[in-house]
Write a structure and sequence with these properties.
Length: about 190
């Protein structure tokens, strides 16, 4: 390669890398109508998870609502957790179990033994803000796939070790695993 070819090659490389990053993170680098099969999915370091953010705060600048497309393998589930966002699930495939403990605003200082509800394809349920819950794929034979809508993104999640962990000892996760790469705190934007 001569120097000019070399320069063109590396400039092209630089631009293709920038374009790829932009489509992952930039607020305006996405198609208006998106094919779910082509939306980037990942496990984000979580065993048995495949997650895609269909529309959300960090990727698309939404302020009121965020929608996820989530698939979990048999035996896998969400952590025991709560958040102030309201949450709606629509089960698309498979089946599992919803566990509901007490709300962090109740008199009890920990979630307590949860109520259990079977969930199935074409079922829907919602979880109010502050209620400690978990959704698990308890079907040994099939993946559990759902659409999840949350209010007021980006979500701040509080994770419990078990149902007897005090509400005050729940561990905060923010940003969410899938937002880590693209999340920019408000403050750093203003520094420029
Ligand atoms: C959506 O993407 C999938 C996988 O790439 C493809 O097979 C399908 O044809 C696409 N659908 C449309 C309507 O483009
Ligand atoms: C889900 O329910 C709707 C409304 O009854 C029905 O049309 C649809 O076929 C159902 N889908 C599945 C997968 O059962």
């Amino acid at each position: 390669m001569n120097r000019l070819q070399c320069l063109i090659f590396f400039t092209a490389l630089l631009f293709s890398a920038t374009a790829a990053d932009a489509s992952r993170c930039a607020n305006d680098g996405y198609d208006i109508v998106r094919n779910i099969s082509e939306v980037e999915q990942g496990s984000f370091g979580r065993f048995g998870l495949s997650h895609a953010t269909l529309a959300g705060a960090v990727l698309h600048g939404l302020k009121e609502v965020e929608v996820w497309f989530t698939t979990v393998a048999p035996g896998v589930g969400t952590p025991i957790h709560r958040h102030s966002s309201e949450e709606v699930f629509v089960i698309l495939k498979g089946s599992g179990t919803l566990y509901i403990g007490s709300s962090a605003n109740s008199d009890q200082d920990h979630p307590g033994t949860p109520q259990e509800y079977p969930v199935f394809a074409n079922s829907t349920f919602h979880v109010a803000g502050g209620v400690v819950h978990q959704v698990r794929n308890t079907n040994e034979h099939e993946d559990l796939q759902c659409l999840v809508a949350i209010s007021r993104p980006p979500m701040k999640m509080f994770m419990y070790k078990d149902w007897f962990t005090p509400h005050t000892a729940a561990k905060m996760v923010f940003p969410m695993f899938w937002d880590e790469r693209c999340y920019e705190p408000e403050e750093t934007k203003d520094e420029l």
